[in-house]
Amino acid sequence: MTTSALPSRIGFPPSLVNYRFDAAYDEMFSAPAEPREHYQSLHRTLLGLPPEELRKSQQAADLTFLHEGITFTVYGSKEGTERIFPNDLIPRIIPAGEWTKIEKGLTQRLTALNLFLRDIYHEGRILREGIVPRELIYSCRHFRREMRGLNVPRDIYVSVCGTDLVRTPDGNFAVLEDNLRVPSGVSYMLANRKVLKRVFPKMFRDYGVWPIDHYPQALLATMRSLTPENCAHAQDPVTVLLTPGVSNSAYFEHTFLAQQMGIELVEGRDLLVHDNVVYMRTTAGPRRVDVIYRRVDDDFLDPLCFRPDSILGVPGLFNAYRTGSVSLANAIGTGVADDKAVYAYVPEIIRFYLKEDAILPNVPTYLLTDDAQRQHVLEHLEELVVKAVGESGGYGMLIGPHSTKQQREEFRARILAEPRNYIAQPTLALSCAPCLIDGEVESRHIDLRPYILMGEKVTLVPGGLTRVALRKGSLVVNSSQGGGSKDTWVLRAGNGDDRVAQVADDVRKGIVERKLA
Amino acid sequence: MRPPRSYFVRTFRRDAGMLSRVAESLYWMSRYLERAKHTARLVDVELQLWLDQSPEAGAGRWRFLLEALRMPAGPGAVDSTGLLNSLVFSRTNASSIVSCIAAARENLRHVREQCSTGMWEHLNRLYLEVMEARPEEGWLLKSHSFFHTVQGGEQLFQGITDGTMSHGEGWQFIQLGRYVERTDTLAALLGTQFSRVAQPVDQAVESAEYLEWVGLLRACVAFEAYCKAYTAEIRPLRVAEFLLLNPDFPHSVRFSVDRINAALHIIGDLTERREKLPTRIAGRLRAQLSFSQIEEVMAEGPHAYMENVRNECAQLHTAIHQMYFDYSIEAEMAS
Q1: Residue A2 counted as domain residue
Q2: Considering CB atoms only, which of A67, A270, A274 is closest to B333?
Q3: Where are any strands of DSSP class E within A275-383?
């Protein structure tokens, strides 16, 4: 990897001295000391601010996060399980043109994945035609045979999706993985924005950034679009958010979203099923529940149907769901479509259902069930990234270039024992963006997770969670593995200077909508 | 009196009742905070009194303090440093100030979406502040500012709660928790006092006894209010009357029981469960306090009177628990 520092000449601001470049695409600079057009204003601002001021702003922001209790929980660490989510003050900026492509690409992808889920749980056309191998689906840990032949409202399996995008060295976005089960992080997107607006009000205003504050309302509308047909009060269905409870890593987010949507946050023990109807226990007696935005994994939802030792779930919930008296979002069994081996087939899936080419490409992926591909991977372990197919959150991963011989041997043994359980990808040079590290601006690797809602229409809130690998040189952005996040600014057309475009944008009220075809 | 709720017609009606688990958490959060504040005030006053007393008075007083805090000491000597540690910092003593604030915060954390952001932020900050205090050398000298932080923190929290949270059912459960706890702590404190001085006299007292009764008033933040009502002449009988039967002072037993009644009535309306057991027990206790004269209480035996108040309070708590938090589903589905 070639590494070169910025030339340190007289008068150059001290805060950018340690900014390094490597093979990765740099979000701010097209060449050393040449900021891209949409980053120029930010670059000027950074140069104008003394490091001391930046440091102070960062401390003020950290304090806000601590006081508001914007925390997450780390599993498997003994010291204090609650941590603040590290926030980086320097926003990541995405110009309007790039965003339009992301928006189209993700809408296309989610539409196809929903059709795919409906198909594999019903006729199985795609399997019959051999586009996706049958054994791949049926051997998937997240395939739920209980869902076979069950109709879900509007045929929407995935209502809430968070897709991880990375920018490859050529400057294009590619999909790294889909999160179709219970994607999290959206509350940090909203919290980051709130803090950034406080720290850089003028720059924010001048840039002409799309607002994202309507996300909770859009989420509520998405939930309500799933109201069961026979609901007695369809105008005002009782919608609840089901959380595993306080010790879940995303508990802050659950409380935040429930509050922002104005719905009840319930735990499994608050719900009960009587005659295939779900009720919640209230001070005025049991109250019927119509739609559940569940943030509990399939496995734990119903001890009578899935894991019998689950105390987070609601006994009898699945049967009630089968009768259609209650709706769940996301549906059960969506994990089969974000299995990392099925992921490799998504471009084929899009072509099969929509007769279109994928707008956002995949990252090249080796399937280890294939003898030739497995052989290649085993010979090149120190160059590749190996991932367990059913895991998320950065758990169960081997990053070849940063691994020890012992780790590689361990993964080699695991792959040979269960080839279906792993995939491999080339080690990606994730793009780099400026981050504030101890008062100085340095470059760190980032990705992007936009959130897509699918109800009556598809809603993409312009922005997303930009995750940052805070450790120097690290490629792992997961919050559980020492990652942080930063605000993501999607610019209105014309970079905010074009008043006409901005008025037109205002008329659209900040909501990017497109009727489903 | 507020106008009947039915005068307010909502354009958009939501169902009656709130999650039982949430109601219970709010109720307990409120109880724990009230308890922390009460302990902080009592220990603070006690330490101040201690400065004014002869050295040999020491040990007996700690025993009294523990009893007033509903934590009777076992036999044997009470060591003052260990005692302070256990009342203030101990995490094994569930009623220590630090434990109470941690428990209040934990309860609020479980129902965070039910409270305003300001409430959570403030309680969380109070928690972080309290957790930082350490029982180190010389802490006693600075202890006043610590107790001040706890009391001020609770009062500010109450203010933020009243100002930013809708005064709906959840808020009523917070009121309920606060005043059930206050009734019980006040009754325990007065009961302990009456166990030492069985018949408070109706004449001014001096020196050690004066300090004792003023201490009691201060422990209930009542000294100034008492002076306004009765002048600065401290007569034990009047102190007892003020703290037990005064209808207007927020830290009197009567006032607290009135607030319990008000909260239970509104909760009963909101949940369509009027005329149930909790309302009846609270009404009974209220009638007793409303129509008692201090002379009658003294004739009956003030210690026994306070025991009775505490007993009713415990019954009330159980009734609330069974009515609102942990009812049987079968019975509810059948009705």
Answers
A1: no
A2: A274
A3: 277-282, 285-288, 291-294, 327-329, 366-367
